[in-house]
Amino acid sequence: MAYLELNNIYKTYGQGDNETEVLSNINLKIEEGEFVAIVGFTGSGKTTLVNLINGLIQPTSGEVLFKGQPVLGTSHERGVIFQNYSLLPWLTVGQNVFMAVKEAFPKKSKSELNALVASYVEMVSLTPAINKRPKELSGGMRQRVAVARALAMKPEMIIMDEPLGALDALTRGNLQDEILNIWGQDKRTALLITNDVDEGIYMADRIIPLRPGPKATLGPEFKIDIDRPRDKTEMNDNENFKQTRNAIIEYLMDIGNERKSEAREAYVLPDLAPKDFVNQFR
Amino acid sequence: MKASLTLGKVSKFMGLGFFITLKDLFTGKLEKEDLKSFLRKVVVPLASIILFIGLWHLGAKSLYNTEAEFKIAKALQDQGQAAADALKVCIASGDSSCQPNTLPSPAQVWESFQSLLRDHNIISADKAAFAEKTAALNEKRIAAGQDPIVYTGRPSFVDQIFRSLQTVFAGFFLAFLIAVPLGIFIGLSPTLKSAFNWFIQIFKPVSPVVWYLLVFMIVKTVLIGSSNDSSFTISFISVGLCSMWATLVNTAMGVSSVDKDYINVAKVLKLGTFQKIFKVVLPSSLPLIFTGLKITLSVAWMVLIAIELLAQSPGLGLFVWEEFQNGANDSNAKIIVAMFVIGIIGFLLDRLMLTIQNWVSFDKQDAI
Fold this sequence. Notes:
The complex is a heterodimer of chains A (282) and B (368). With 282 residues, chain A is α/β, with parallel strands linked by helices. Helix content of chain A is 38%, strand content 21%. By secondary structure, chain B is mostly helical. In chain B, 81% of the residues lie in helices and 0% in strands.
């Protein structure tokens, strides 16, 4: 039995004539300790998929099984890193993390919790900023707080919804390494949603493209057989990497073209020519 | 250095940033590019104040002349040339018995302001003397279980100000105590929202005068048989009911429109209901709640004058009304003094709320 299983998931929004099917026939299995990436275009239903897995919303039909049990609500076992950080702006970095650990470990004493907060803030190297509010931090720092908050609850599975989407390329690279480091330390199960194929290949064991919605569904999976720890510069010369990358991008491009051709509609343009103003006023 | 830094921070915090520029001017730290902002922040307001006073002076003078000419013409028509000449001399001499009754000039208002302060000093001295005189007797009376003798003389202008402030704060706290919890409940529950919506929509636009009459009807019966003066109770309840709507609506809106991301965080962290309300919903709606409270306080101060006037409750409203009824020679000037005092206190109350808001809220904002 897989660690996380999605069986025949359908998700629709609205009712009657306004009903739109966002996700259609999604089947996914993730084994324990695996790092899976789902890549897709923006607006293809990625966030809906994440919210289904973390339990914020329920599927219209089908079931999400986590360790064999149906997911009916959120749980501390599945830590979420949101796309837009979602830090509470009135709390400091430390307080944001503290709030999470306090809920996850209600039995621990305050000093134990504080030690836990300190260690996770240190892990994302934000100790100097522990008393700052999110507003005073850069985007990368905020995302690291969100990472610390999700990990401090010691979830068994980490779900990341485009965690690095809003960051610049350099910060992105650093944070990818940090997340991989943390994941490598105790081999938790991880699901990464991203729109960056390179990021997916660099980080994940398996990549599954999401065919864009409406009626989004998962495409064929691509295994990444590159040894860890992976090196970005070396990877660029790796034949295996090149092939996988090209295959995925080709696949995504094909879907994109398919979509475009579907949407193509021949417009009859009126036969117009600009007036010759220059000669008219001469 | 440290003290000046604090001054700068404090004044910026209170939305009085121009103090910093003023201080820089005196300490000679003003850079050339600061000169523009100095001109804009200090010189322009000062110039506009002077212009305002100048226009006021000219306007008052012209009104004064019109009124004087009319008076003389009327005396000429009714009583003949001799009376008209006498009146002319009388007006020119500045005798208070025959001054035209019109908009007072800035100088007259300033004079009245000082006379009101002198009056306050006299009354305070009087009060102190009275307290001294009755101190021994009051002790005996209290020991014997009787009520102490209190000063029942005329309140001074400053006393009226403090009474008004008491009323407005009592009313404001009443509004706060009703509107904030109610707003939170309405914001959290769509059922309550639809239950209260008609109520809010209908009662929100009701005029302060009508609120006063309504409160009067109820309080009069509730306090039946009580010998205490109920005017204070009536006026502060009316002020509270009249001004609470802005807070109620803003609180409900703030609570019901919390960012979905924060709600998702609360769900993912599995916060309990109370935790969710106190740690996520309330902090995120604080800016809107405070906007509501700020409006409430300024509305409370605005309607206070009308309500005090109706309720015959001591305070600035009653002061204005009594001066108008009084019709003494300097009454008009005193009314204008009261107008400025009301305006300035209103401004200070607004700044007070802004300071508190900046203190407690994460969403710092500059004064508008």
